[in-house]
Amino acid sequence: LATTNPAKSESLYRSILALDLAAATPDLPKDDTIRLKESAITGLSALFVKASNPAALSDLATSLRPFFTAISKAKGAKIIRALLDALASVPDPDEATLSALCEDTIAWCRAENRTFLRQRIEGRLAALRLSQRHYTDALRIISALISEIKRLDDKGHLLEVQLLESRAHHALRNLPKARASLTAARTTANGIYVPPALQAEIDSQAGIVSAEEKDYKTAYSYFYEAFEGYMKLDSPNAVNNLKYMLLCKIMTDHAEDVAGIVNGAVALKYSGRDIGALQAVAAAYKSRSLLSFERASTEYKTELVDDPIIHTHLTELYEKLLEQNLLRLVEPFSRVEISHIAELIKLPLETVEAKLSQMILDKKLHGILDQGAGCLEVFDEVTESKTYKDSLQAMTNMGFVVDSLFEKASAL
User: What secondary structure does DSSP assign to 308-358, as a single string?
Assistant: First the structure.
């Protein structure tokens, strides 16, 4: 009926929800009425999700509050969380509606003194703020929530919130605090049973933080663990961690290993644009071609540029590739026009000039820019003589010996 006549199906569900719990009869006891209402709520929410009607779902969750006060707190909390899950699963979810419902439900929980449910919804609201990129608001909610949860010793929820905190600090580029929150989460995880999905999330976050700290070998190991965990759960997050694994191989100058991983029996089923994007980057890096790199970034913009984690590392990889190409081009010259280098590397003159200036300041290139003539003067790299340092060290050591002999002679 829900498929053939949704309007009639909705009407029937609402008639069930209108049943009065106080008017129980021997034919329809109170417990049976509650079970009927629960089934009606599930059916009605599924109907609204299928119709992509978040507003109706939000109204349903609000209108059922008198029913929640009439049943046990645990059962009411389960239904409320199921409704929030249904609202989040609507295609192209309206985050403003979900956010408003969370805030309204939190206020209701405070009034009804439902602490555990409120904390769970506050955790969901923090995750929502994180996805909306309101990082400061997310951290404000998380900070207050962590101190409350610690007092109640709810370690399962504490672990989830600590992971959210690590993600928020990472998004704000505060790596020390992201690492500290992750370490706290792993410490919490050691004392409880961690579901496979949550363990995979911990491994994935550990890989992200390690990659930011330039420890790509360790990051690869974490991403591999997360990939295996998500793969067993048949989660869409598996392909993201496979992408990060390939990125780590490229960043450690092992771009040739990408083909072997992608063509492996485990990774073959994940082949698609996401994996093709990293293969294109690996091919560009192997050939040291900036043009191929830029072409891959344009062709796979959604998979590369729109992913903040991959975009951060690809920007660094592009700078590294640009430096290598510039050093290779200027190597035969002692004086060369900047416009000629820009023509050879097929990049705008301003970009090349700015990069050469940065490389000179970073002491990666020995030379000066003659901006009046528009030229780069390259100097031979001067090898530092060790004679002066060695002589100075010998004289220092001799001084220690003389002082020691003087002290011994004075004691005679």
Answer: HHHHHHHHHHHHHHHHHHHHHHHTT-SEEEHHHHHHHHTS-HHHHHHHHHH
Q: What pTM value is reported for the model?
A: 0.78
Nearest 10 degrees: Cα torsion 38, 40, 45, 48: -170
Considering all CA atoms of the chain, what is the largest pairwise distance in Å, rounded to the nearest integer? Answer: 114
Query: Mapped to the 3 state alphabet, what secondary structure does 79-124 carry?
Result: HHHHHHHHHHCCCCCCHHHHHHHHHHHHHHHHHHCCHHHHHHHHHH
Could you read off the pLDDT of 217-276 as tens digits, one per residue?
999 999 999 999 999 998 888 999 999 999 999 988 888 888 888 888 777 888 888 888
Angle at 318 between CA 314 and CA 323, to 5 degrees: 150
Note the pLDDT of residue 224.
93
| Nearest-5° Cα angle at 7, 100 to 46 | 50
Q: Is the dihedral of CA 40, 41, 45, 51 positive or negative?
A: positive
Partners of residue 376 on adjacent β-strands: 336, 369
Q: What are phi and psi of 193, to 5 degrees?
A: -80, 130
Q: Are 234 and 262 in contact (CB under 8 A)?
A: no
Residue-wise pLDDT for 137-173, tens only, equals: 999 999 999 999 988 888 999 999 999 999 999 999 8
How many CB atoms are located within 10 Å of the residue 29 CB?
A: 11
Most confident range (mean pLDDT) of 60-74, 176-190, 261-275 is 176-190
Of the chain, the end-to-end C-alpha distance in Å amounts to 111
pLDDT in tens, 21-30: 665 566 667 7
Strand partners, 369: 376
Helix (H/G/I), strand (E/B), else coil: 276? helix
Q: Which residues contact 283 (CB under 8 A, 6 or more apart)?
A: 255, 292, 296
Quickly count: other Cβ atoms within 10 Å of residue 3's Cβ.
8
Residue 66 has pLDDT above 80, yes or no: yes
Distance CA 209, CA 181 (A): 11
- Residue in 52, 22, 130, 120 with CA at minimum distance from that of residue 80: 120
Give the mean pLDDT of the chain: 86
Q: What is the spatial distance between Cα 77 and Cα 321, in angstroms, rounded to a whole number?
A: 54
